[in-house]
Specification:
By secondary structure, the chain is an alpha/beta fold. Helix content is 47%, strand content 13%. It has ten helices and six strands; from the N terminus they run H-E-H-H-H-E-H-E-H-E-H-H-H-E-E-H. It has a six-stranded parallel sheet with strand order 3-4-2-1-5-6, with helices on both faces. Helix 2 crosses helix 3 and helix 3 packs parallel to helix 5. The radius of gyration is 19 Å and the shape is globular. The mean pLDDT is 93.
Amino acid sequence: MRLPHPLYRLYERRLVAGLSREAVPRHVGVMMDGNRRWARSLGEPAAAGHRRGADHISEFLQWSEEVGVEVVTLWMLSTDNLQRDPEEVADLLDIITGSVRELASTRRWRLKAVGDLRLLPADVAEALRAAEEATQDVRGLQLNVAVGYGGRHEIADAVRALLREHAEAGTPLEDLAEELTVEHIASHLYTQGQPDPDLVIRTSGEQRIGGFLLWQSVHSEFYFCDAYWPDFRRVDFLRALRSYAARERRLGR
Protein backbone atom coordinates (compact mmCIF):
# COMPACT_ATOMS: atom_id res chain seq x y z
CA MET A 1 0.00 0.00 0.00
CA ARG A 2 1.43 3.38 -1.00
CA LEU A 3 1.60 6.25 1.44
CA PRO A 4 -0.24 9.48 0.57
CA HIS A 5 1.84 11.79 -1.62
CA PRO A 6 2.65 14.43 1.09
CA LEU A 7 4.03 11.72 3.36
CA TYR A 8 6.32 10.49 0.62
CA ARG A 9 7.70 14.01 0.27
CA LEU A 10 8.35 14.17 4.00
CA TYR A 11 10.00 10.75 3.90
CA GLU A 12 12.20 11.81 0.96
CA ARG A 13 13.35 14.91 2.85
CA ARG A 14 14.30 12.76 5.82
CA LEU A 15 16.28 10.40 3.58
CA VAL A 16 18.10 13.31 1.93
CA ALA A 17 18.87 14.89 5.31
CA GLY A 18 20.39 11.61 6.45
CA LEU A 19 22.77 11.37 3.48
CA SER A 20 26.36 12.50 3.87
CA ARG A 21 28.00 14.01 0.79
CA GLU A 22 31.06 11.90 1.52
CA ALA A 23 28.94 8.74 1.36
CA VAL A 24 27.37 9.48 -2.04
CA PRO A 25 28.69 7.25 -4.85
CA ARG A 26 30.66 9.02 -7.57
CA HIS A 27 29.50 6.60 -10.26
CA VAL A 28 26.10 4.88 -10.35
CA GLY A 29 25.23 2.21 -12.90
CA VAL A 30 21.61 1.34 -13.56
CA MET A 31 20.15 -1.75 -15.17
CA MET A 32 16.83 -0.27 -16.29
CA ASP A 33 14.91 -3.52 -16.20
CA GLY A 34 11.17 -4.21 -16.37
CA ASN A 35 9.92 -1.97 -19.18
CA ARG A 36 8.26 -4.83 -21.05
CA ARG A 37 6.69 -6.31 -17.92
CA TRP A 38 5.44 -2.87 -16.90
CA ALA A 39 3.71 -2.51 -20.27
CA ARG A 40 2.32 -6.05 -20.12
CA SER A 41 0.79 -5.38 -16.68
CA LEU A 42 -1.19 -2.55 -18.27
CA GLY A 43 -2.14 -4.48 -21.38
CA GLU A 44 0.12 -2.29 -23.52
CA PRO A 45 2.65 -3.24 -26.21
CA ALA A 46 6.32 -3.48 -25.26
CA ALA A 47 7.07 -0.20 -27.03
CA ALA A 48 4.87 1.65 -24.52
CA GLY A 49 7.05 0.38 -21.69
CA HIS A 50 10.27 1.26 -23.48
CA ARG A 51 8.93 4.74 -24.21
CA ARG A 52 7.90 5.31 -20.59
CA GLY A 53 11.29 4.05 -19.45
CA ALA A 54 13.08 6.47 -21.79
CA ASP A 55 10.94 9.36 -20.56
CA HIS A 56 12.03 8.54 -17.00
CA ILE A 57 15.74 9.03 -17.69
CA SER A 58 15.98 12.81 -17.37
CA GLU A 59 14.13 12.64 -14.05
CA PHE A 60 16.63 10.11 -12.73
CA LEU A 61 19.55 12.25 -13.88
CA GLN A 62 18.13 15.22 -12.00
CA TRP A 63 17.92 13.13 -8.81
CA SER A 64 21.53 12.07 -9.33
CA GLU A 65 22.69 15.65 -9.80
CA GLU A 66 20.88 16.78 -6.66
CA VAL A 67 22.84 14.41 -4.42
CA GLY A 68 26.22 14.90 -6.13
CA VAL A 69 26.65 11.81 -8.33
CA GLU A 70 29.27 12.55 -10.99
CA VAL A 71 28.83 9.66 -13.46
CA VAL A 72 25.74 7.64 -14.42
CA THR A 73 25.80 4.62 -16.72
CA LEU A 74 22.42 3.47 -18.03
CA TRP A 75 22.09 0.08 -19.71
CA MET A 76 19.60 0.83 -22.46
CA LEU A 77 20.16 -2.06 -24.88
CA SER A 78 22.25 -5.20 -24.45
CA THR A 79 23.87 -7.30 -27.15
CA ASP A 80 21.39 -10.04 -26.18
CA ASN A 81 18.47 -7.64 -26.67
CA LEU A 82 19.46 -7.32 -30.31
CA GLN A 83 18.33 -10.93 -30.80
CA ARG A 84 14.72 -10.17 -29.81
CA ASP A 85 11.80 -9.83 -32.22
CA PRO A 86 13.03 -7.53 -35.04
CA GLU A 87 9.96 -5.30 -34.81
CA GLU A 88 10.43 -4.74 -31.08
CA VAL A 89 14.15 -4.09 -31.56
CA ALA A 90 13.39 -1.54 -34.29
CA ASP A 91 10.89 0.24 -32.02
CA LEU A 92 13.35 0.22 -29.14
CA LEU A 93 16.17 1.63 -31.28
CA ASP A 94 13.88 4.42 -32.47
CA ILE A 95 12.98 5.24 -28.87
CA ILE A 96 16.62 5.18 -27.76
CA THR A 97 17.67 7.40 -30.66
CA GLY A 98 14.99 9.95 -29.86
CA SER A 99 15.83 9.87 -26.17
CA VAL A 100 19.56 10.35 -26.74
CA ARG A 101 18.94 13.27 -29.08
CA GLU A 102 16.63 14.90 -26.56
CA LEU A 103 19.10 14.43 -23.70
CA ALA A 104 21.90 15.89 -25.80
CA SER A 105 19.79 18.86 -26.86
CA THR A 106 19.48 20.02 -23.25
CA ARG A 107 23.28 20.38 -23.05
CA ARG A 108 22.93 19.62 -19.37
CA TRP A 109 24.79 16.29 -19.38
CA ARG A 110 27.91 15.04 -21.16
CA LEU A 111 26.99 11.94 -23.13
CA LYS A 112 29.17 9.00 -24.11
CA ALA A 113 28.12 5.95 -26.07
CA VAL A 114 29.19 2.77 -24.28
CA GLY A 115 28.88 -0.30 -26.48
CA ASP A 116 29.80 -1.71 -29.86
CA LEU A 117 28.31 0.73 -32.35
CA ARG A 118 29.19 -1.66 -35.18
CA LEU A 119 26.30 -3.86 -34.05
CA LEU A 120 23.77 -1.06 -34.54
CA PRO A 121 22.08 0.33 -37.65
CA ALA A 122 24.14 3.13 -39.20
CA ASP A 123 21.63 5.88 -38.35
CA VAL A 124 21.48 4.85 -34.69
CA ALA A 125 25.27 4.71 -34.39
CA GLU A 126 25.54 8.13 -36.04
CA ALA A 127 22.98 9.60 -33.62
CA LEU A 128 25.01 8.33 -30.67
CA ARG A 129 28.25 9.76 -32.08
CA ALA A 130 26.53 13.09 -32.77
CA ALA A 131 25.26 13.24 -29.17
CA GLU A 132 28.79 12.66 -27.90
CA GLU A 133 30.20 15.38 -30.11
CA ALA A 134 27.45 17.87 -29.25
CA THR A 135 28.01 17.50 -25.50
CA GLN A 136 31.76 16.94 -25.22
CA ASP A 137 32.30 20.45 -23.80
CA VAL A 138 29.46 20.21 -21.26
CA ARG A 139 30.69 20.38 -17.66
CA GLY A 140 27.73 18.60 -16.12
CA LEU A 141 27.21 15.02 -15.06
CA GLN A 142 28.80 12.34 -17.26
CA LEU A 143 26.10 10.12 -18.78
CA ASN A 144 27.16 6.83 -20.34
CA VAL A 145 24.44 5.36 -22.56
CA ALA A 146 25.10 1.64 -22.88
CA VAL A 147 23.61 0.63 -26.23
CA GLY A 148 24.63 -2.59 -27.98
CA TYR A 149 26.49 -3.34 -24.76
CA GLY A 150 27.57 -6.66 -23.24
CA GLY A 151 30.20 -7.12 -20.55
CA ARG A 152 31.98 -10.04 -22.20
CA HIS A 153 31.78 -8.27 -25.56
CA GLU A 154 33.42 -5.18 -24.03
CA ILE A 155 36.32 -7.20 -22.59
CA ALA A 156 36.83 -8.96 -25.92
CA ASP A 157 36.81 -5.58 -27.68
CA ALA A 158 39.37 -4.23 -25.22
CA VAL A 159 41.71 -7.17 -25.80
CA ARG A 160 41.34 -6.83 -29.58
CA ALA A 161 42.14 -3.11 -29.39
CA LEU A 162 45.15 -3.83 -27.21
CA LEU A 163 46.47 -6.48 -29.61
CA ARG A 164 46.01 -4.17 -32.62
CA GLU A 165 47.84 -1.36 -30.84
CA HIS A 166 50.86 -3.54 -30.07
CA ALA A 167 50.81 -5.19 -33.49
CA GLU A 168 51.02 -1.74 -35.12
CA ALA A 169 53.92 -0.89 -32.78
CA GLY A 170 55.66 -4.13 -33.71
CA THR A 171 55.60 -5.61 -30.22
CA PRO A 172 56.35 -9.35 -30.32
CA LEU A 173 53.47 -11.43 -28.96
CA GLU A 174 55.79 -13.07 -26.45
CA ASP A 175 56.79 -9.67 -25.04
CA LEU A 176 53.16 -8.57 -24.78
CA ALA A 177 52.26 -11.77 -22.92
CA GLU A 178 55.02 -11.08 -20.40
CA GLU A 179 54.11 -7.41 -19.89
CA LEU A 180 50.30 -7.58 -19.98
CA THR A 181 48.54 -6.26 -16.85
CA VAL A 182 44.95 -5.60 -15.84
CA GLU A 183 45.67 -1.88 -16.25
CA HIS A 184 46.49 -2.45 -19.93
CA ILE A 185 43.08 -4.01 -20.52
CA ALA A 186 41.26 -1.43 -18.37
CA SER A 187 42.75 1.36 -20.48
CA HIS A 188 40.94 -0.03 -23.54
CA LEU A 189 37.48 -0.47 -22.04
CA TYR A 190 34.56 1.65 -23.23
CA THR A 191 34.69 3.56 -19.90
CA GLN A 192 38.44 4.18 -19.96
CA GLY A 193 39.43 7.18 -17.85
CA GLN A 194 36.30 7.05 -15.71
CA PRO A 195 35.94 5.85 -12.11
CA ASP A 196 34.51 2.36 -11.73
CA PRO A 197 30.88 2.24 -10.54
CA ASP A 198 30.52 2.45 -6.78
CA LEU A 199 26.87 1.43 -6.85
CA VAL A 200 24.93 -0.65 -9.38
CA ILE A 201 21.12 -0.63 -9.22
CA ARG A 202 18.90 -3.17 -10.92
CA THR A 203 15.16 -2.66 -11.05
CA SER A 204 12.31 -5.16 -11.57
CA GLY A 205 13.25 -7.61 -8.80
CA GLU A 206 15.83 -9.55 -10.81
CA GLN A 207 18.93 -10.30 -8.73
CA ARG A 208 21.74 -10.93 -11.21
CA ILE A 209 24.18 -8.67 -13.03
CA GLY A 210 23.61 -10.08 -16.52
CA GLY A 211 27.04 -8.93 -17.73
CA PHE A 212 26.59 -5.23 -16.93
CA LEU A 213 29.96 -3.49 -16.47
CA LEU A 214 31.39 -6.93 -15.84
CA TRP A 215 35.00 -5.77 -15.50
CA GLN A 216 34.31 -2.45 -13.78
CA SER A 217 31.88 -3.71 -11.14
CA VAL A 218 34.27 -6.12 -9.41
CA HIS A 219 34.19 -3.95 -6.25
CA SER A 220 30.79 -2.33 -6.76
CA GLU A 221 27.95 -2.46 -4.27
CA PHE A 222 24.69 -3.85 -5.71
CA TYR A 223 21.15 -2.80 -4.90
CA PHE A 224 18.14 -4.72 -6.23
CA CYS A 225 14.76 -3.00 -6.31
CA ASP A 226 11.41 -4.71 -6.94
CA ALA A 227 9.92 -1.76 -8.86
CA TYR A 228 9.93 -1.89 -12.66
CA TRP A 229 12.08 0.88 -14.15
CA PRO A 230 9.09 3.05 -15.24
CA ASP A 231 7.84 2.94 -11.61
CA PHE A 232 11.24 3.59 -10.01
CA ARG A 233 10.73 6.62 -7.77
CA ARG A 234 13.01 9.17 -6.17
CA VAL A 235 12.33 7.53 -2.81
CA ASP A 236 13.55 4.19 -4.25
CA PHE A 237 16.75 5.90 -5.40
CA LEU A 238 17.28 7.50 -2.01
CA ARG A 239 16.78 4.14 -0.32
CA ALA A 240 19.46 2.70 -2.59
CA LEU A 241 21.81 5.51 -1.58
CA ARG A 242 21.01 4.97 2.09
CA SER A 243 21.76 1.25 1.73
CA TYR A 244 25.04 2.05 -0.03
CA ALA A 245 26.09 4.56 2.64
CA ALA A 246 25.46 2.01 5.39
CA ARG A 247 27.80 -0.59 3.91
CA GLU A 248 31.43 -1.11 4.78
CA ARG A 249 33.29 -0.99 1.50
CA ARG A 250 36.36 -3.20 1.62
CA LEU A 251 37.20 -3.00 -2.10
CA GLY A 252 38.50 -6.55 -2.12
CA ARG A 253 40.78 -6.05 0.86
